[in-house]
Amino acid sequence: MQNQLAKFGMAPGVLAVAAAALLGGCGGAQSSAALSPFVPRQAGGDVALTMPHYVRRTVHPDRSVSSVSPNAKAAKMLLYVGDWSTNDVYLYDYKSGAPVGTLTGNDEPYGMCVDAKGDMYVANFGSGTVNEYAHGGTLIQSYSTAGELIGCAVDAKGDVAATSFDPGDVTVFAKGNPEAGTTYSDSACEYMWTMGYDDNGNLVGIGEYSSIAVCALLAGSKTMTTLQTIGFTVWFAGGTTWDGKYLALGDQEVGGKYESGVARATLKGNTLTFVSSTTFSDNCDSDYTDDVNPFIVGKKNTPANRKQGNAMVGPNLWCIDAGAPKVDYWHYPAGGLPYNDLSSPPDEPYGAGVSIAQ
Questions:
Q1: Sign for the pseudo-dihedral over CA of 306, 289, 292, 207
Q2: What is the pLDDT along the chain (358 residues), one digit of tens a residue?
Q3: Which of the 8 DSSP states describes residue 71?
Q4: What predicted TM-score, i.e. pTM, was given to this entire model?
Q5: Which residue in 3, 117, 305, 315 has its CB near the most CB atoms, within 10 A?
Q6: Residue 358 and residue 355: Cα distance in Å, rounded?
Q7: Burial of 56 (0-12, 13-18, 19+ CB in 10 A)
Q8: Helices (DSSP H) in the chain: which residue ranges?
Q9: Hey, is 176 helix, strand or coil?
């Protein structure tokens, strides 16, 4: 793949980002049906706009109903993995990797999030819905939006935020009420990656228009704002999440290389300040990694977690393109090579999340 990077200005206090060829990585084994992953866009300058990753293999939807093993409900920690080849979500025992269930009725399941009690939320890129599932159980309810959902987040109050990549906006469902959705946007983030809540209820994510920006819906605010940043560079935006101690902003090309990572930062007022970073490596497809929505696992579910997580889990989209799908477990915040991976991952895993039973 040709390296098609476009660097944006790196002025002090402004997030500098280089947009890469696609939102989810592209390797040399794409199918002939693949959509163009690189869409240049003229908007206030010559900007290479990053777009969602598509492999577009033949989809074989599962026409059966969801099926969950009793072992799923008994498991303390469950790993959920979305599969674009079937539009299903598969359940695994987090520690052993043993398959324990299948959830049907999804449409291009992408980013996932969890609430304090362990319900798992699946953002569907194709249908614009978020499906909520009980830990080890089946569908509880759905949240509908008008966008292409790339991910979601839940805060300590139970507000559910569904991020649309295009149009770039976020719909917040107050206290998890599917009928109480309010949509917010910022012109600086016409295209948006998954937004995540910090421990104070601030909703933060990276987006772009003619350049890259960090947009936020600050706690108590009724409008989104563009944040200032200090001390760090994200080369190719990814999803934002809470790691138990810091906001972790995803970077799909750390240092301009084909490696995923996160930049940890603190938010004070409308300023994000860099703290530290982690890079995640792998050993497939020239050692490239690409995880769009890092899911950081702690001892409690994300909204309730107040200690830094100890693992990051997710699919490496480069491996999908190489014809060898992987869902990896990395040490966090150490990073480096995976310490484990699923022995039998789905054919086209795009997103993953972990639920801890309460």
A1: positive
A2: 222 222 222 222 334 433 333 344 433 333 222 222 222 222 333 334 455 554 555 666 666 678 888 888 899 999 999 999 999 999 999 999 999 999 999 999 999 999 999 999 999 999 999 999 999 988 999 999 999 999 999 999 999 999 999 999 999 999 999 999 999 999 999 999 999 999 999 999 999 887 789 999 999 999 999 999 999 888 889 999 999 999 999 999 898 889 999 999 999 999 999 999 999 999 998 889 999 999 999 999 999 999 999 999 999 999 988 889 999 999 999 999 999 999 999 999 999 999 999 9
A3: H
A4: 0.86
A5: 315
A6: 9
A7: middle
A8: 70-74, 317-321
A9: helix
Report phi then psi at 5, rounded to 5: -105, 145
Judging by beta carbons within 10 Å of its beta carbon (0-12, 13-18, 19+), is residue 178 exposed, middle or buried? middle
Q: Are 183 and 195 in contact (CB under 8 A)?
A: no
Among 242, 59, 61, residue whose Cα is nearest residue 156: 242
Helix (H, G, I), strand (E, B) or coil at 75: coil
Q: What is the dihedral of CA 257, 259, 265, 270, to 10 degrees?
A: 60
Strand partners, 330: 312
Which of 308, 290, 311, 324 is CA-nearest to residue 353?
Answer: 311
Query: What is the CATH superfamily name and number for domain 6-356?
Result: TolB, C-terminal domain (2.120.10.30)
- What are the φ and ψ backbone dihedral angles of 175, each rounded to 5 degrees? 50, 30
Rounded to whole angstroms, how far apart are CA atoms 118 and 94?
14
Count the neighbouring beta carbons within 10 Å of the beta carbon of residue 270: 13
SS3 113: strand
Domain ranges of the chain: 6-356
